[in-house]
Amino acid sequence: MGSLDLKWNSSGCMVLRKVESTKTKGEDMSSLCGSSAYLYKRRGRRIRCREQRVNIVATGPAIDHAPVIAKPLTKDDLIDYFVSGCKPKHNWRIGTEHEKFGFELKTLRPINYKQISALLNRIATRFDWEKIMEGDNIIGLKNGKQSISLEPGGQFELSGMPLKTLHQTCDEINSHLYQAKTVAEEMGIGFLGLGFQPKWRLEDIPGVPKVRYNIMQNHLGKFGSPTIESLFMTCSVQVNLDFSSEADMIKKMRASIALQPLAAALFANSPFKEGVPNGYLTIRSHRVGQMDKSRAGILPFVFYDTFGFEKYVDYALDVPMLFVYRKNKYIDCRGMSFRDFMAGKLPVIPGQVPTLGDWENHLTTIFPEVRLKRYMEMRGADDGPLEMLCALPAFWVGLLYDEVSLQNVLDMIADWTPEDIQNLRNKVPITGLTTPVQGRLLQHIAEDTLKWAKDGLDRRCLNESVFLDPLKEVVGTGLTQADKLLEMYNNKWGNNIDPVFRERCY
Amino acid sequence: MVVFSRSATTTTTTTTTYTRHNLIRQTKTCVGNNNSLCYSATKKAPPQRILGGARGSRVILAASPPTEDALVATDPLTKQDLVDYLASGCKPKDKWRIGTEHEKFGFEFGTLRPMKYDQIAELLNGIAERFDWDKVMEGDKIIGLKQGKQSISLEPGGQFELSGAPLETLHQTCAEVNLHLYQVKAVAEEMGIGFLGIGFQPKWGIKDIPIMPKGRYDIMRNYMPKVGSLGLDMMFRTCTVQVNLDFSSEADMIRKFRAGLALQPIATALFANSPFKEGKPNGFFSMRSHIWTDTDKDRTGMLPFVFDDSFGFQQYVDYALDVPMYFVYRKHRYIDCTGKTFRDFLAGRLPCIPGELPTLNDWENHLTTIFPEVRLKRYLEMRGADGGPWRRLCALPAFWVGLLYDEVSLQSVLDMTADWTPEERQMLRNKVPVTGLKTPFRDGLLKHVAEDVLKLAKDGLERRGFKESGFLNEVAEVVRTGVTPAERLLELYHGKWEQSVLVVSHLSFI
């Protein structure tokens, strides 16, 4: 079976075309990213992006180094890791991830690990997924390039595979929800599509037995409850997108960081906490914004003229480490930086220096609004209903995968300062689309942006702009999911939170 | 692929060799007529005298272009070859699979009119492009799609059909239906098209229904009125859900065939879902089922001979040989051969193609034009149920898998029906479309038999150990209340819908 490839035809539209499957192992990237590019090699074999991506995206067990590196990593190796993500436009893909809260249908309580374990085992048996174990504990599933994993508060996450079209993406989410629901229904379990736990307190939420989460909790706890709540009580949807070059990466980082607050506003879906309105439209966004500032935020340096792969590496090198994974064990490294590790100065493993696997692991413990790996992760949106899970990748693909729309965004934000963006970031969780920015309301900026997203999708010629319809409604009415839920809470539900579980159950 | 000589002498020798081979290797004894063989794979695939791969005939299930012979057979087909074709379907229990097919009516949202071919072509092309299906063409017209072992095809009136892959569990089957409906819906919605899960077109007359441009349907359309009054209704206005199931031996086939035929009227009652015609109640719970009683008696029915002691693969072949043919497919053309039998073809006596003899592919094609309540190919097809909403599409395979894939339940069914006479079976067949579960039977109602049967199905599923019995919930509700889906629709029609056919919102998959 040949595979589909995206090509530009003579009229400038991207078309799906069948091509013969290539027998080449991996992709030859030396010609793609300029003469300075080279790939990290391990025993002469290239690391293939898709293989690596699955591991990283899945938040599965950390990568343990199998071979011993002949030479210590250099900073250039770290930079080249990012450079290796560059790929030509026709190889750009869409990878969507979403999380959801599991709850008992009868009691509405969060599901505990025992229930999650049973759920994972049944999905594995019925729909032929491979189990991912950590010792005796099942912590996830894998099926080809898709994976299911658990977040610290038992949030059940699908990390989708890299796909070519939004139709395929939405198809994948639908299939996953079908499988999860089929098994969950028998167990009296439902899944909730909201950005923040609406009813239960932190102490009511059972943890999951993943060692790295224990370390994270111990370390991040000192930064206050927002950080812990971000880990245990939030659910988001994110899309992972590619870039063709460092210059392209820079443009996309700037556009997406600047507009991440807009995405937060459009997808705002977390107005409740402990059974009552919390004063926010998206408390998830607010809580994430209050996290450990050394590893979260809008990254002002991205907007400096000097920004590139190297600057992101410099930033990541100084983010405090959480752990190192050795011999199937997580070693707590809190307080030290990866820069220390590069110099062999980690007290917990004296004299040891990092592998590229350690670098990959470290990058997953950094939580900016847009995260850079060998692709970019758009992290600013609350979880929501199926149509919103499909709308998020549509929004970002329309804006970032089309040069005209991307340039329009860059022109619009050209005179936004990092302070403007930070201010927007701080206010959006409360005032949403009514937030003022540079003399305009965010809602009006949303109108322009949504048009560019639609135009960007239309120029892909895959009939994908239908996935933006839910956002058109939000922009047209000015009412987010959160606004609608608050209205129901105040009226139909008579100030009782319990109906939200039925209203937002997948 | 091993091709064996078909000369009489060599065939006999080969037959003997096969018998020894299979008797030695089979875990079960092959019981049956001397003239039939069972092939079971233990260490290598059994030899097959079929051109094409295993389940290649599924293309035919899809009503895709008939298989055309790529190779010319070196010797004329014998009757034994036809028998062996069916026998080659035998497989060990661990290889038994579940293949589900369902049809649905497409309609325009605004006007509720049936989809035209142009719309269907656009829909097929949209699905192919977005979800990576291969197109199946007839000349320059798209008539279906394929993806792996799944296929999408068109029935004469534009009924949109999914023929599912052979799957191991009902969970996989239901997931497959769900995914298919999602994909169809994603494309159809943009075109302003919805799909209706019902057994008979509730609103429109035959003249309102566009005809699909498939060669074989032209021949069928001309022939049908000659042999029955309802053939065109069958072609253009019915939708079915069916499940295809395997057998391990001729003896197993016989048992399943008998159980399937006897209980087919119960399935019809449980899934009855076609009470409307041209905007009004039609007096039936399953008009679809009724239609088959006057379509073409030569190729439909309850096959009384299946219950004869002499029944086996050969008897089914004898039956099929005398069913009048519709067409032969040669050089991308359908040749009208109505009025003649396959037996004539075996003797080279088809006036439409004088002197030509059939290939095994012709036999495969011919078998697809026979429409009994249970059809035999290299598996059995349970054909007695109306199309319906999604959960009921999952319930039908659950019902039959529970009964036929578990020895205990199967034996219980055979015991229960052992003393049913052919007249009683036919009476059920005739009455069920009208009175459903309220059909009187012996000292009680059919509902009481259904209660027992449903329990057997549930127990059978539980013994499979896959936690599949939840799929029977839809049917359990019907049995418990004695109210078929059709009766629920009638109640809505007379009440809430104020005698207008608003089934669209009620039964649409959208």
Automatic annotation (TrEMBL), chain A:
It catalyses: L-cysteine + L-glutamate + ATP = gamma-L-glutamyl-L-cysteine + ADP + phosphate + H(+). It is found in: Plastid, Chloroplast. Its EC number is 6.3.2.2. Pathway: Sulfur metabolism; glutathione biosynthesis; glutathione from L-cysteine and L-glutamate: step 1/2. Its main location: plastid. GO terms for biological process: glutathione biosynthetic process. The keyword Disulfide bond applies. GO terms for cellular component: chloroplast. GO terms for molecular function: ATP binding; glutamate-cysteine ligase activity. Belongs to the carboxylate-amine ligase family. Glutamate--cysteine ligase type 2 subfamily. Homodimer or monomer when oxidized or reduced, respectively. This is Glutamate--cysteine ligase.
Automatic annotation (TrEMBL), chain B:
GO terms for molecular function: ATP binding; glutamate-cysteine ligase activity. It is an enzyme of class 6 (ligase). GO terms for biological process: glutathione biosynthetic process. It catalyses: L-cysteine + L-glutamate + ATP = gamma-L-glutamyl-L-cysteine + ADP + phosphate + H(+). Its main location: plastid. The keyword ATP-binding applies. GO terms for cellular component: chloroplast. Homodimer or monomer when oxidized or reduced, respectively. Keywords: ATP-binding, Chloroplast, Disulfide bond, Glutathione biosynthesis, Ligase, Nucleotide-binding, Plastid, Transit peptide. Pathway: Sulfur metabolism; glutathione biosynthesis; glutathione from L-cysteine and L-glutamate: step 1/2. It comes from Glycine max (Soybean). The keyword Chloroplast applies. This is Glutamate--cysteine ligase.
